[in-house]
Amino acid sequence: MLNTTASGHLNVGLLLFPELDQLDFTGPFEVLSRMPDSTVHLLWKNTAPVKDMMGLVLQPTATLKAAPPLDVLVVPGGYGQQALMEDAEVIDYVREQGERAKYVVSVCTGALILGAAGLLKGYRATTHWTAVSLLAHLGAVHVDQRVVVDRNRVTCGGVTSGIDGALALVALLRGEQAAQEIQLYMEYSPAPPFKSGSPGTAPAAVLEAVTQRAQKMLLARSETCKRIAVRLGV
Description:
The protein has helices spanning about 20-30, 80-85, 90-100, 110-115, 160-175, 175-185, 205-230; strands at about 10-15, 40-45, 50, 55-60, 60-65, 70-75, 105, 125, 140, 145-150, 155. By secondary structure, the protein is of the alpha/beta class. The protein has a single domain, classed as Class I glutamine amidotransferase (GATase) domain (Rossmann fold), CATH 3.40.50.880. The strands form three sheets. It has a seven-stranded mixed sheet with strand order 5-2-1-6-7-11-10, with helices on both faces. Helix 1 (about 20-30) runs parallel beside helix 5 (about 160-175) and helix 5 runs antiparallel to helix 6. The mean pLDDT is about 95.
């Protein structure tokens, strides 16, 4: 783990948006809300409640315009990520905050939003396994790891990996003991009932079924990424 422990109070911003995957958001929130000497801001264009892609309601605490300068920006994924990739207000905000933040974090297909903002050009990165082929359109180099740290970019794979990435971030910012204390408090010691949590371990029939269900969204994301690649000059 790199020794880049930060001093002083930290402002952490987690992006909210309609049809996000709530665990992409709430996993890192669970960790980062316990980080010493920090304030977590739940950010969206307005402060009206936001529904995740399965209907869970989440409440923003500040608007993008009213948010303070961020030390950490966290961008989750989910179905709603697709629209955000070409949403000028959101992309401008992510780019501006990301260029000056100490760390920029993505979870799952939130990496595609970072990429659309130009924040992954020339960086090693990861995303949900169904979308890794799209990273090249955004100038990123895919690394097959659950969490990838490249300079001040922390990208996480699918959904639950946001917990791992957030713990790694706490270790970078506040030291490994702080991260381990949070992990222990959460009793985060995964022992899943099945070995189907990655393409490399899932039974062939399970992998095929999930891959087929993801095809429509993958095609839509691919077309969006190709348009953005032209804009980015990739």
